[in-house]
Amino acid sequence: MYSFHLEDLKRLERKVKSLFKDFLSEIGFGSHNRDASAKGQDHLPTRDLHLCPKVDAHETDNEIIIKCDLPGAKKEDIHFELYGDNMLYIRAETKLESSLEKGKTHIQERRHGIHSRFIPLPSTANTDEIDARFDHGVLTTRISKKEETKLHKINLL
Predict the structure, then answer these.
(1) 27, 49, 105 from 36: Cα distances, Å
(2) Cβ of 114: how many Cβ atoms within 10 Å?
(3) pLDDT per position as a tens digit, 117-133
């Protein structure tokens, strides 16, 4: 039977934290810079990240509605393109606020970097009729459906 002492648990905790910090550093978070770590800034990103924004897609009888979260993005930094007849591409870039670079940062969880996503559209999408609006960090896209694919209800006699 094993007997664990407090020092063993503390050593295990330090090892797990070290492994986690190394992993986060490899994917763009954290730093191996001991000077930054001593200042409590080891959690700061070392490079911009490529981020995949969250998307909701909903289809009604007449249209396809796509909502894409782009927090911190500005309207002028959003690129919105259509590839072929069925692939929507959304890209936005958010930047780290310069005020965060001065002083001592205690927590930094908001993401910055390139937000991009390809969204496949159904064959029913009429890509000649697309309306997109950006409000409060959410890009809402409404795409009409082709007339021949709209749902036509038939009343039973």
Answers:
(1) 18, 20, 11
(2) 13
(3) 999 999 899 999 999 99
